């Protein structure tokens, strides 16, 4: 319990620092990106080399703004509105959104959705973010591997607290090394190249799932892929925890 409290205190402090960083970074990054993009579009007489340099500035400013957005998500203490939602519909929307990316990378993106899935009281936008993070990570993990495949499945299950639903995001990539597995949900921990990962996606996803009273875990087999499993309790809209899960919490 003492370790858990210390961990929560560190996360709260990190959230406060992240909020301040986002506030200070947003305006100059917007200016850098906007001015560079404007010069790039209006100055046709620039040499090819100069235009290439400007494009790098635009791309890197955009990447830093994306990082600041993820920091904002990590530090945000407000909660989305909780209401009954169709989890299968969120999965379909996510796969539709990332379908073009999967095809461009020659990845087979599959859905295996349970027909009898009940509606779940949830922050729909938050859960959409979780799925987007998990599927994007899976697509990155299998890129370049033979017959790359990512599958998103939903199913009914039973948890110690009663009826629940599960979302599985599975890939046939290299898996997660045993020494890295305990750290993958830590803020800013990433195995990706600096340009492709900020290390916040999984920590934010875990926080969102736990906010719903659920759990997010990772399973892996070396050289045979990884599976991320989000378990969400099935509660009625009038359930006390469902009603309060969307309210702000104190820092």
Question: Which regions are unreliable across 5 or more consecutive residues at pLDDT < 50?
Answer: 242-251
Please give the share of residues in helix: 40-55%
Structural class: alpha+beta
Distance between the termini: 18 Å
Taken in chain order, the helices and strands follow as HHEHEEHEEHEEH
| Rg from alpha-carbon coordinates | 20 Å
Determine the strand fraction and express it as a percent band: 15-25%
Largest sheet: 5 strands, mixed
Kindly report the average pLDDT value.
Answer: 79
**Shape, per Cα inertia axes:** globular
In short:
The chain is of the alpha+beta class. It has helices at residues 2-42, 48-75, 87-104, 124-142, 201-211, 240-244; strands spanning 82-85, 108-112, 120-123, 149-159, 162-171, 215-221, 225-233. Helices cover 49% and strands 20% of the residues.
Give the SSE map.
Layout: H1 2-42, H2 48-75, E1 82-85, H3 87-104, E2 108-112, E3 120-123, H4 124-142, E4 149-159, E5 162-171, H5 201-211, E6 215-221, E7 225-233, H6 240-244
Parallel strand pairs: 2-4
Antiparallel strand pairs: 1-3, 4-5, 5-7, 6-7
Structure description:
With 251 residues, the chain is an alpha+beta fold. Helices cover 49% and strands 20% of the residues. The protein is built from six helices and seven strands. The chain has helices spanning 2-42, 48-75, 87-104, 124-142, 201-211, 240-244, and strands at 82-85, 108-112, 120-123, 149-159, 162-171, 215-221, 225-233. The strands form two sheets. It has a five-stranded mixed sheet with strand order 2-4-5-7-6. α1 (2-42) runs antiparallel to α2 and α3 (87-104) packs parallel to α4 (124-142). The relative contact order is 0.13.
